[in-house]
Amino acid sequence: MSSQRSEAESDVGSCALVRIGMVDDHPSPIWGIEGLLRHHDDLDLRASAATVGDLLAQTTELDVVILDLRLKDGTTPRENVTTLSEYGIATVVYTSGEHPALLRSAARANALGVILKSASEDAIVDALRAAGDGRAVLTTAWAAAIDGDPDLAAVDLSPQMQRVLALYASGETSVGVGRELNVTPDTVNEYLKRIRQKYAEAGRPTRTKIDLFKRAVEDGWLPMPHRGEGGAQS
C-alpha cells in the first residue's frame, strides 16, 4: 500500500490517494462504504471505529473522516470535528439528514459538508474526492441546515463558558459545576450570568435551565438527547 500511496501522492488533483477513516457505532454503514470504495483505487478506507478516540488510536494518517452525527458515547459533532481538525483531518458528516441542529453543530466546527445516507454511489465518491482535495461538499441538505434557521444567531462562548454551560445545562448545580472546574459557585454564577446575557443579545433568551439546555444542544455544546431521556433534556 505504501508504494501505491507514494505513486498516488506524486500525481496531481483528483488522482491523489485519499486516505479515509469512518466513525459509526453501527457496523452496516461501515460495511456499505467499505464495499463501495473497493471499486475506486484513489479512495482508501484505512480504519473505522465506533468513536473518534478509537479511530485516532488506530491511526492519525488520514485525510478525511466520514462521521456519523449521533454516537452512543455522547460526544457532539462539534467536538468530534474539532478534535479531528487538530490532527489536520477533514470531516464529512454522514447522515440521513433528519437532525439539522446536529448538522449546524458540525458546520460551526468547519466540517466540509454532508453526505446523505440515501445518496448515490457517484455522489458519495464525488464528495469524498472533493473533501480529500480540501473542497467543501456542497449539498442542498448542508445549505438548508446552515441557512434554514435564521433565529439561531451565533453566540461566541469562551472554552470555560462552554464547559460551564455544558455541565450546568446537563443537570449540575452551581456547586457541582464549581467542584468539577475547580472554581467557586459564585464564579460559576457569574459565568452563567454572562452566558445568559450573550444569548439575550443574540435574540435567543435563556430564562430557565431548560432554555440553557436547548441552546447548548442547538450550538453543539451538548449532544442531542435520544427519545425517552429525562432530566433537563426533556
Automatic annotation (TrEMBL):
<dbReference type="InterPro" id="IPR011006">
    <property type="entry name" value="CheY-like_superfamily"/>
</dbReference>
<dbReference type="GO" id="GO:0006355">
    <property type="term" value="P:regulation of DNA-templated transcription"/>
</dbReference>
<dbReference type="InterPro" id="IPR036388">
    <property type="entry name" value="WH-like_DNA-bd_sf"/>
</dbReference>
<dbReference type="GO" id="GO:0000160">
    <property type="term" value="P:phosphorelay signal transduction system"/>
</dbReference>
<keyword id="KW-0597">Phosphoprotein</keyword>
<dbReference type="Pfam" id="PF00196">
    <property type="entry name" value="GerE"/>
</dbReference>
<dbReference type="GO" id="GO:0003677">
    <property type="term" value="F:DNA binding"/>
</dbReference>
<dbReference type="InterPro" id="IPR001789">
    <property type="entry name" value="Sig_transdc_resp-reg_receiver"/>
</dbReference>
<keyword id="KW-0804">Transcription</keyword>
<feature type="domain" description="Response regulatory">
    <location>
        <begin position="19"/>
        <end position="132"/>
    </location>
</feature>
<keyword id="KW-0805">Transcription regulation</keyword>
<feature type="modified residue" description="4-aspartylphosphate">
    <location>
        <position position="68"/>
    </location>
</feature>
<protein>
    <submittedName>
        <fullName>Putative two-component response regulator</fullName>
    </submittedName>
</protein>
<dbReference type="InterPro" id="IPR000792">
    <property type="entry name" value="Tscrpt_reg_LuxR_C"/>
</dbReference>
<dbReference type="InterPro" id="IPR016032">
    <property type="entry name" value="Sig_transdc_resp-reg_C-effctor"/>
</dbReference>
<keyword id="KW-0238">DNA-binding</keyword>
